[in-house]
Design a protein that fits this description.
Order of helices and strands: HHHHHHHHEEEEEEHEHEHHHHH
Radius of gyration: 25 Å
Helix content: 40-55%
Oligomer: single chain
Number of helices: 15
Strand content: 5-15%
Mean pLDDT: 88
Distance between the termini: 49 Å
Number of strands: 8
Length: 369
C-alpha cells in the first residue's frame, strides 16, 4: 500500500501528443540561433542544390535536411551515421533541428550515407562555409586587416600495417590474412618508397622531434584576429613545406588590395615565405626563429611595431580552433579516406565551428553573462 502523496510508476503504452518538436525545444536553447544562421546559409545554396540533382526519378532526401543532420553529427560528436540515425529516432531536439516531424520515418543508415556521398562529390562544404562567413561579415564580426595561420596533423583512417612498399616486396606471406603480424624493426620506411594500401593519399608524418610518425593529412586554417573566426581552410598532403604552401594559397585568396598582416609560428620564418608574403602585399608577423641557419628572416622593421606583438598574442587563438575540431568535431582521426573527402569534412567542420562562435558572439544572453 503506497502513501497517497507518492506518485505511481505507470507508463501508458499508447497516447496522442498535441505538442510538436518546435514546442518541445526551449526558446533559449543554443541550437535555435545556430538553426537560424544555418537556414539562411542553406537558402543561399538552393540553386546549387538544384544543379546537382536530376530532374527525373524518385525524390531523394532533401539536401537541407542532409546538411543539418551532418551538422548535428559534428556539433554533438556522433561518431557514425548509424548512431546519428538512432538518435533521430527518439531525440526530439535532433528531429526539430533536422526538420523531421514526430511521425516522420528516419532514413536507413545506408540510404543516408549514399545521399551524403552526392554532397561530398561537389563543393557544397565550401559554399556552405562561404554562406556562413557572409553572415559574419554582415554582422561586422570579421577583421579585413589582421589574420593568423597555422596547420595541424589530421590522422588518416589507415593503420601503420597498411603502409607497405610500392614495389610489392613486403617480405614473407602473412601468418594471418585478416590481422597479420608485422615487424618494422630495422626497416627504413618513407613516403618515397612506401604507400598506404588503405588510403593512398595519406602520408607518413610526425608532429615534431620525439613524436611518433603517423599516416596523416595537413589541415590548415586562416583566422581573422578580431574574433578568431575561420575565414579559409586548406588541406594538403603532408611534406616538409605543406604548412607554408597552404599559407601562401590562403594568403592569395584574401580579398582586397590593402596591405594586411599575417601572424604565424616559427615554422613560417623562412626567407622564401617572408619574401612571397611581401610580394602578395602581406606583412608577415611570424615568430622569429633565431636558431635557423642565417638567423631570422624577420628584422626590426617588423618587430619594432606594437602591431607585431599584438599579432603574436592573437595568433594563439588558432589553437582553440584546432582543439575544437579535434575534440568536438571528431577530427583527431578522420573517418574518411582520400584527400578530397577529408578536405570536404575539414571545411564543413570549420563552418560548424564558426556557427558556434557566431552564436556566442551574437547571443544577447551570452553577452550579458
Amino acid at each position: 500500500m503506497f502513501p497517497p502523496m507518492r506518485g505511481h510508476d505507470y507508463q501508458q503504452s499508447e497516447m496522442y501528443s498535441y505538442l510538436s518538436p518546435e514546442q518541445r525545444v526551449p526558446a533559449n536553447h543554443p541550437l535555435r540561433s545556430i538553426r537560424e544562421i544555418t537556414d539562411r546559409a542553406l537558402k543561399g545554396l538552393s540553386r546549387k542544390f538544384s544543379a546537382i540533382y536530376a530532374t527525373t526519378g524518385r525524390p531523394s532526401i532533401a539536401p537541407e535536411k542532409l546538411l543539418r543532420a551532418l551538422l548535428l553529427q559534428v556539433l554533438y560528436t556522433v561518431r557514425s551515421e548509424r548512431l546519428l540515425m538512432e538518435q533521430l529516432e527518439y531525440n526530439l531536439l535532433f528531429r526539430w533541428f533536422v526538420g523531421l516531424n514526430m511521425d516522420e520515418p528516419v532514413w536507413v543508415p545506408t540510404v543516408f550515407s549514399k545521399n551524403r556521398d552526392r554532397l561530398l562529390e561537389g563543393d557544397i562544404a565550401e559554399r556552405f562555409f562561404e554562406e556562413v562567413l557572409k553572415q559574419a561579415q554582415e554582422a561586422d564580426l570579421l577583421s579585413d586587416e589582421h589574420f593568423s595561420v597555422d596547420g595541424t596533423l589530421i590522422e588518416a583512417w589507415a593503420s601503420q600495417k597498411s603502409f607497405q612498399r610500392k614495389d610489392g616486396e613486403n617480405g614473407p606471406p602473412p601468418d594471418d590474412a585478416g590481422n597479420p603480424t608485422v615487424n618494422f624493426h630495422g626497416e627504413k620506411r618513407s613516403n618515397a618508397t612506401h604507400e598506404s594500401t588503405t588510403d593512398a593519399d595519406a602520408r607518413l608524418a610526425r608532429k615534431g622531434g620525439g613524436h611518433e610518425a603517423k599516416l596523416a593529412y595537413c589541415g590548415n586554417v586562416l583566422i581573422e584576429n578580431r574574433n578568431g573566426l575561420v575565414v579559409d581552410t586548406e588541406l594538403l598532403q603532408c611534406n616538409g613545406t605543406a604548412e607554408r604552401d597552404a599559407a601562401m594559397l590562403m594568403a592569395e585568396r584574401i580579398e582586397g588590395d590593402d596591405r594586411v598582416t599575417l601572424a604565424g609560428d616559427k615554422g613560417y620564418d623562412t626567407k622564401d615565405f617572408v619574401k612571397e608574403m611581401r610580394h602578395l602585399n602581406v606583412t608577415p608577423h611570424v615568430a622569429q626563429n633565431d636558431r635557423r641557419p642565417g638567423g631570422s628572416a624577420i628584422d626590426a622593421r617588423t618587430t619594432r611595431h606594437a602591431g607585431y606583438q599584438i599579432s603574436q598574442q592573437k595568433r594563439k587563438c588558432i589553437e582553440e580552433v584546432f582543439g575544437w575540431l579535434k575534440t568536438v568535431g571528431a577530427l583527431r582521426k578522420t573517418r574518411h579516406r582520400g584527400i578530397f573527402k577529408v578536405g570536404w569534412v575539414f571545411t564543413f567542420a570549420a563552418a560548424a565551428y564558426n556557427l558556434v562562435r557566431m552564436r556566442n558572439l551574437l547571443s544577447p544572453a551570452v553577452q550579458q553573462a
